[in-house]
Write a structure and sequence with these properties.
Distance between the termini: 41 Å
CATH architecture of the largest domain: Alpha-Beta Barrel
Low-confidence stretches: none
Shape: globular
Strand content: 15-25%
CATH topology of the largest domain: TIM Barrel
Helix content: 40-55%
Bound molecules: 2-phosphoglycolic acid, zinc ion
Mean pLDDT: 97
CATH superfamily of the largest domain: Enolase-like C-terminal domain
Number of domains: 2
Number of helices: 14
Oligomer: single chain
């Protein structure tokens, strides 16, 4: 495939920050030209082992330098294109070209390559992984982040005086996960639960004190993590919703490197004490999943917890950063049994597929994830479906940015499972 024209522009993400969007025109042999667009997200609770991003201004400069290596050249496959970007960058953390510039080109290439072959993006990504590993025959479950905490929240300044609450909850994400394989049903249950929860929170805290965090989950003047968990659990029980509870602690955010302790709810805890706290939560709320319970270097603490709560899917995010060396270490240490996949943590689609392949090779599950600063690009929905991920994490079932991914997954679900006359 030959890229005849490629342009990079800056657009605003869901936080109003600038990010990159690629506009690519390409053709295969004598076939007609196709045009695609791709854009990339940005995290806030980023892991230190993620690839580095450049500001749009610097990314434009870098793109000008490499343009001639890309435009007008005939690329035979994704790997060849991605390998060129990696070589042009030449660094380990992709700080030269920027992980964001590399990924927006890599995703744009994938979309264009699929289109020139009349393949759905999910089918194309399925083929890329299929050439390396057998793909699980499953459709991803949505992980709805319905209450936001941690770095994804700005607490209103008057809440300290009004409620004695000056900081967000330590746990970053309180999620509900449908207990059904039917994606369409799971999405509608998730949406209904989200709106019921909003109403319920309004009754408890006053509608004016129910605001939204970065991922469209609710933020209220909660004092403790359990206060939020109790409200979710009670609502599930009251209406018998087929939903399970999941958490992303994003614990690097409340870890103290100096003495390897965790400051949670105003108390300092050792890794052992935190392990017991998670053990209690996992049993009290029958947690289906738990992400990043410890700091991003705590391979052994993850492993200790994994042994204690075998029924909970333990997910690594900042620990592994979609990076093959980090995943390999986590596998050998038996740190967890599932990895979060964020393409912008590693920078190319080829490397993302390689990490997924390594996870499957070792019996791990994958959960494909958005970032807290998102665009309306729905690439990750195709990725999650294409690679048979266990889960798709795209925030609350609300706002255009989060819904773009769930809606695309719903389209793909309906193609596979036509619902009949109604
Ligand atoms: P981030 O958060 O996109 O701000 O890094 C998401 C997550 O921790 O899973
Ligand atoms: Zn996370």
């Amino acid at each position: 495939m030959i890229l005849s024209e490629t342009k990079i522009v800056a657009i605003k993400d869901s936080r109003g920050s600038q990010t990159l969007e690629a506009h690519i025109t390409a053709h295969e042999g004598d076939s007609k030209e196709i045009s695609v667009v791709a854009s990339v997200p940005a995290g806030k609770s980023t892991g230190i082992h993620e690839v580095k991003s450049l500001s749009p201004a610097l990314a434009f400069e870098q793109f000008e330098k490499i343009k001639r290596n890309i435009i007008g050249v005939n690329f035979h496959d994704q790997q060849e294109f991605d390998a060129l970007l990696i070589a042009l960058d030449g660094s380990l953390d992709k700080h030269v070209l920027g992980g964001n510039l590399i990924l927006v080109l890599s995703e744009g290439f994938a979309r264009a390559f699929a289109a020139t072959r009349d393949l759905g993006l999910n089918q194309y990504l399925h083929q890329l992984l299929g050439s390396k590993h057998k793909i699980p025959d499953r459709f991803p479950r949505p992980l709805f982040n319905i209450i936001n905490g941690g770095a994804h929240v700005t607490i209103p300044s008057d809440w300290d005086k009004k409620f004695g609450v000056s900081k967000s909850l330590d746990i970053q994400e309180f999620q509900v996960v449908p207990a059904t394989d039917d994606f369409a049903l799971g999405l509608s249950v998730g949406k209904e639960f989200y709106s019921k929860l909003g109403y319920e929170l309004g009754k408890i805290y006053g509608a004016e004190n129910v605001i939204l965090g970065d991922e469209a989950g609710y933020v209220c003047p909660f004092k403790t993590n359990e206060e939020a968990l109790e409200i979710i659990q009670e609502l599930i029980n009251r209406y018998l919703y087929p939903l399970k509870i999941g958490l992303d602690a994003a614990a690097s955010q409340f870890h103290n490197d100096a003495d390897d302790s965790y400051m949670i709810e105003g108390a300092e805890r050792t890794p052992e004490e935190l392990t017991m706290l998670y053990y209690d939560l996992a049993h009290a709320y029958e947690l289906i999943s738990l992400e990043d319970p410890f700091n991003e270097e705590a391979f052994d603490d993850f492993a200790g917890l994994q042994e204690k709560i075998p029924k909970t899917i333990l997910i690594t995010d900042d620990l592994t950063t979609t990076n093959p060396e980090r995943l390999s270490k986590a596998i050998s240490k038996k740190s967890a049994n599932a990895i979060l996949i964020k393409p912008n943590q590693i920078g190319t689609i080829t490397e993302t597929i390689d990490v997924i392949s390594m996870a499957y090779e070792n019996g791990w599950k994958t959960i494909v994830s958005h970032r807290s600063g998102e665009t309306k690009d729905d690439f990750i929905a195709d990725l999650a479906v294409g690679v048979g991920a266990w889960g798709l994490k795209s925030g609350a079932p609300a706002t255009e940015y989060r819904m773009a991914k769930y809606s695309r997954a719903l389209d793909l679900w309906q193609k596979i499972n036509p619902s009949g006359p109604f």
